[in-house]
Each structure stands twice: as structure tokens, then as C-alpha cells.
Design a protein that fits this description.
189 residues, mainly alpha, 83% helix
Length: 189
């Protein structure tokens, strides 16, 4: 016989998960606001994070180098050394690393915008193609603004974009968590 426990079952699990999602959403929103208020600090944090990722990637390449033949060994050691060098460079020169990441971001945005414009001309008669062109124009303006003002754009670009992303992630998670809780509570709750 199953006891009628209101704290058991899928409803309780969804309620608990919804509460965690809402709590994490608040954390994302707070972090996003902090990154937008202090974009230089957020950008430096990203550069340092990338440095550590490169170091761990370099270590992984070096470790995996010893799993094959001589050609693999040499190639993986060279790639691992490049990763390690890049990671150490980012950690010891985070401002220059942030500048590099910002220039890379501007380049990626410009290429994306050009590809979106090409895609628009291939689909301009279809529904939604106007939104695609608008996206391309905004993206090329953003990429161009970052590129033209580089290296000074390094102070705000990465941190602001990370902040906006965290903020939007927080709001989407908040909506998801509140919806899950409302669905479990039932209509009219």
C-alpha cells in the first residue's frame, strides 16, 4: 500500500526542481547585472578562464600524445605545447588576452553578418527573411563597432556581452522555473 505523502511523487520533484531553477535564475541575473556594471572585470575573468581552459587542453594533448605512434607523439606534444603557451600567456597577460579575444569576437561577428546577408539574398522571398536581414545588419554594426574601436572596445565588449547573455539566461530560467511550479500547482494557483 502506498502512503499518501504530499512530499512524494513527480509533483514534489517538479516543485523542488522548479525552486532550484528559480534560485539559479536569480544567480544568473545577479551575475549578469554585475558583468554589465563592471564589464572590464567580467572581460578579464573571461580571459583568465580561457587561459585555464587552454592550459587544461594542453595538458590533455600532452597526456594523449603517449597513446599512439611516434608521429602522433610529436604532433600532440607540439599542439599541447601551443595550448600551454597560449594559456600561460593569457594568465600572465590577461589584458592582452582580453584584447585578442575581443578582436576575435569582432571578426566572428563580421563573418557571421556577411554569411547572414548572403543567406538573406538566397531566401529573401521566404517568411522571416526580413528578420534575418535585420539580424545581419545589427550584427555587422556590432562587429564593426567593436572592430573600429579596438583595442579600447576590449574594456567593455566581452564583459558586456557575457553580462547580457547571463541576464537573458537568468530570465529564461526564471520563466521556466515559475512555469514548472505553476503547472504542478494546478490551474488557478
Amino acid at each position: 500500500m502506498i502512503a499518501a505523502n504530499p512530499n512524494a511523487g513527480p509533483g514534489a520533484l517538479v516543485r523542488k526542481a522548479g525552486a532550484w531553477v528559480v534560485a539559479m535564475a536569480v544567480v544568473f541575473i545577479v551575475l549578469g547585472l554585475m558583468a554589465i556594471v563592471e564589464p572590464a572585470v567580467a572581460g578579464l575573468a573571461v580571459a583568465i578562464f580561457v587561459g585555464w581552459l587552454l592550459i587544461f587542453g594542453g595538458a590533455a594533448h600532452i597526456v594523449s600524445a603517449f597513446g599512439g605512434g611516434a608521429a602522433r607523439l610529436v604532433w600532440q606534444l607540439l599542439v599541447g605545447a601551443a595550448y600551454l603557451f597560449g594559456g600561460i600567456y593569457f594568465l600572465t597577460h590577461p589584458l592582452l588576452g582580453l584584447g585578442t579575444l575581443t578582436l576575435l569576437l569582432a571578426s566572428i561577428l563580421m563573418v557571421e553578418a556577411i554569411l547572414e546577408i548572403v543567406a538573406y539574398f538566397k531566401t529573401r522571398g521566404e517568411a522571416g527573411s526580413g528578420a534575418q536581414l535585420l539580424n545581419a545588419i545589427i550584427t555587422i554594426l556590432l562587429g564593426g563597432m567593436i572592430w573600429v574601436h579596438w583595442p579600447s572596445s576590449s574594456v567593455w565588449a566581452i564583459g558586456t556581452l557575457v553580462g547580457v547573455n547571463l541576464l537573458m539566461t537568468g530570465f529564461s530560467r526564471l520563466a521556466l522555473g515559475l512555469t514548472a511550479r505553476r503547472l504542478v500547482s494546478g490551474p488557478g494557483a
